[in-house]
Amino acid sequence: MDDLNGDFFALLVDESCDVLRKEQLTIILRYVNRCGSVVEHFIGIVHVRNTSALCLKEAIVDYHAQHSLSLSYVRGQCYDGASNMQGDLRGLKTLIQQESKSAYSIHCFAHQFQLTLVAVSKKCLEVGELVLLVSNVLNIVGGSFKRMDDLRESQAEKVQEALDMGELETSRGLNQELGLARAADTRWGSHYKSFKNFISMFGSIIDVLDTIVVDARTLEERAKAKGYLSTCQTFEVAFMLHLMRDVLGITNELNTSLQKKEQDIANAILLVEVAKKRLQKLREEECDSLIDKVSAFCVKYNILIPNFDDFYVNSERSRRKVADYTILHHYRADIFFKIIDWQVQELNARFNEVTTNLLVGIACLNPVDSFSSFDINKF
Length: 379
What we know:
- The protein is of the alpha/beta class.
- It folds into two domains: 9-107, 2-Layer Sandwich (Nucleotidyltransferase, domain 5); 122-305.
- It has helices at residues 53-66, 83-86, 92-99, 109-123, 125-141, 145-164, 190-200, 202-215, 219-232, 235-258, 265-285, 287-300, 327-350, 353-363, and strands at residues 9-17, 23-32, 38-47, 74-78, 104-105.
- Strands 3-2-1-4-5 form a five-stranded mixed β-sheet, covered by helices on one side.
- A hairpin with a 5-residue loop joins strand 1 and strand 2.
- Helix 6 crosses helix 8 (202-215).
- The longest helix is centred in the middle third of the chain and has 24 residues, at 235-258.
- It is globular and about 70 Å long.
């Protein structure tokens, strides 16, 4: 802390429960030391009674006082997207800004990308159903060591079969054993990995569900497995799995890039724009190829492919109430276009013009190459 030298600093805070279910607050400072290098300094973990914004602020003030630090020197705040942190009325960022008006809050870019999926899943029924289905299937398949062994054996057999048929290439690092990746709303990239592995292990997952239907000890487990098995073997689930894998594949690459230590602000903003353009290209050019890819997947696993020229029937309505549009229109307009549009809208909302301009302005203060990024005509 000596190299802080009583200068300005940014505040990074997060909270979580320990194994004893006690709320703990992690405090990190970011500042420029006497040598001109950016330093992130972990200063401690503090126990808090609860996670209200006021309680968190009191804990931060008390801990800073122990190190002779004042909130008036805070020039930046970085938290997750929880309401107690980012709330405009009573969030921690607002309480800190009351002490220091220059303590600007920047929401972590990578975390914002993860939240776009959470937001879309709450808007789109099909995405929400897919997230719930994958979670339930992984829970029942991974419910015992025996089932996990069965899954690994089945996957190994299918990989060897694909290698023998020339469907897979052999090389160092390829065809490694995959795991059941469980998704979490706040775990970056977890939904992408979960959907990706589910597709790769689909045949093995179906095999284990078949076994559970026959061999499970309780009627409840057999009934659940049978229901999941029927749902998984539908064109709609196959389509949603592939669509979400492709959409999240774009944002996952960006997530990975944003978490690199050497990443700068200007390049991060550029990467966000690149992701938006790739999503737009996916929307405009790749719907037909996605349907072809999903159809090939369905042929491989004996899943019924609908006649896309038939009129769409909503499974939640009486079969007598047939829609006045085709099945192809449903998948193209009601799902494919809508999910991508919502994803782009969430990106635009979370990376809005005000935040972007602020970050560009901060990036222009970079002294590298004699402030080459600074353009006086923009400010």
